[in-house]
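Onboarding guide, step 5: your first structure request.
Type a short instruction followed by the sequence, for example:

Predict the 3D structure of this protein.
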Amino acid sequence: MSTSKQIISESLSLTTMSPETALKLFENCAVLIIAGVPPGTEFGIDLKSFYVGEDFRGVKMIPEGVHVIYCSSRGPYGDMAPRVGFTHFFKRGEIVIREWDNNTEELRHRVHKGIIDETDNIKRNLRNLDRYLAPYDYDTLVKWSNLTANITEETVRRLSPDNGIVRNSIELLSCADADRPRGANTSLEPTSTRLTKIRSWMDEEELLPKLKAIPGTIPKFTCLPPRCPKNAPPSEISKHYIDSIAAVELLLQGCEKEIYEEIEFTFILFLCCHSIEALSHWRNILLLLSNSEKAAEKFSGFFRKYSTVLQHQLPELPLELMEQNQNNTVYLDVRRLVLNCYQAGLTSAARQLEKSINETLLWKFENLFEEDPDEMPTVVEL
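The system replies with structure tokens like these:
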């Protein structure tokens, strides 16, 4: 175990940390140096944010691992801009330098010919900068470690946008008139009301403009397979809707580790940078995984780990996604996931997840094993 990890395991609270421990953390952990951030700007690292003052120059005592740094500028009337941030896998003793860009109101790489000499100079005089550096918030480190337990430096490199900047919404290129949707006619008229609803849901994407993100600005998430393949015959639609094993197999086959890392990475991008794209991707993965009892049985190891990470993630959701009602798709998906885990024989994992979210979110899955009429198989007459 490295020196920094040994120190971290000894004391996790700034309020009870001894001067000796703080000094060891200062000397062994990473440092983030920031130049030019205007006073009153919201600055955050991981789960802790604050408004900076005149003398703020960065953060010290950053433990080794992945961290998310974000800022939100203050307007002339006190209004706060959306958060803009970046992820970085800090190494032991590393010094990371960023500077404020007044034009874009975000942090950027500090680039000039003497950057190496500047870094060496900061390292030599780090103790003189101590009073200008905010300490990393060790009171939230355990929670952060649970949320990022499987994220590696390679995960950050693989999934981060090419330009390194994470925004709350992606930047889109304008849509040319030729690319605008014109609608589509279909001669298929399913006799089932349920099939009509499914087909309508599948065709909605065809009515949306084909907008494309500005190259290099979007996180490089995995392209999720459709829950039901397009142009599937009526006899196949019900099968895919009832159990999405085919889509889950396409998603997980040979890359369970990468998807598990991606689930954690997308969640911290949402949690820290309020990324709408990241939250949408996280919810779409949940929807896919929660809709297959066969997948829970086939990929039992993955689903056990997934149920554990959800125990850490779900309590951090925004309030509107914590409501236990039929309009909350996250609640409905988690309920279905718990049921599928029980039915697939993952009793211990399902029971632990159910117990955890009952304690943290007060969700109760009453009548869990009763058959829902909406989930009954549909018979299609051809």
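Each response can be followed by summary notes, for example: The chain has two domains: 3-147, 190-375.
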